[in-house]
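Researcher: Checking consistency across runs. Here is Perchlorate reductase subunit gamma again:
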Amino acid sequence: MLRVILVFLIWVASLAVADAAGPATRTSDASSGGSSRGDFDLLLHARPADPAHVLGNDACVKCHANEINVWKKTPHATTFDELHRRPEARQIARNLKLRSIKHDGRCVACHYTQQQTDQGSLAAIAGVSCESCHAAAKQWLDIHHDYGSPETTRQSESPAHRAERLRRSIAAGMRNPDNVYLVAQSCYRCHTTADEELVNVGGHSAGSEDFEFVAWSQGSIRHNFVRSDGAHNQTSDVKRLRVMFVAGMLADLEASLTATAQATQKAKYGVTAAGRTARAAKRLRSVSEKIDDPYVAASLKVFDGVQLKLNNRESLNKAAQTIAKLGYLFAAKNDGSSLSPLDPFIPPPETWK
């Protein structure tokens, strides 16, 4: 009976994500804040910000000055001026015969924010910035701060309007932290290297193998000012940390499967990606033994149905895509209240990066 339930959940995941975002995913009326079902499916797989839709940090700073000030002190920001000068980065570029670290797509994808100029060319305008993690803002910026009327503020906005605003923002492409899985995906997209040549030929690392979502997001890069109306950079409460802890594991498994799917040779890249995938699944299985969650169980069933082997791109990518949908639904439907058995295992504040 359990097997039947899990199979059903996996099937439902392929249908239910658009419903979680709402009717806007079934229209192409961008002016109303909608997007196509295909566009929303694209959102579920983190990717570099589209330069044609990048507005830049200046579009964010009016309302998020405190967040920008935190960002400026992080490696995400300083990489813009530093990365191309580092000897190890220069060596990787030489190994791959790249002319410019700031212009080559495989470097830009994770280390810079690119914007399309009025002439149609592309220019790196920042390091890892707002739109690197929350997605290019052109389609969703106005939606996400529309509180209902000129007189309405975020504090006076009705709960119903807030829910609809967040739904429409996500449907328009925003990786909104209202669903922490979307944020976790942004992190793991770059902290898991999914480029075989970059590692095996270039000499780049195969990813941040010690990356853990809670520990790495709640320390020096934390910028949670919205909850206190700008007064404090608040830590997340325990229930949200629980959801983040599991969402991070699901995103790790998804990203690791995606990386393994690119492996064609038994070399550093493929071995590392497969090992990371196996570890991610082992951690998630340990979680599944402590909590009763159908989305975690279904994700493990998906993993158990594929082989971590070379040249298995189609099956591994399909598994990753299904886990992405299950991860989104886990975060959308879980408030953390049932995840207390995980509390002893969530990284404590003294370990946050």
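Researcher: Does this match what you'd expect to see?
Model: One thing to look at in this run: Residues 177-353 form one domain.
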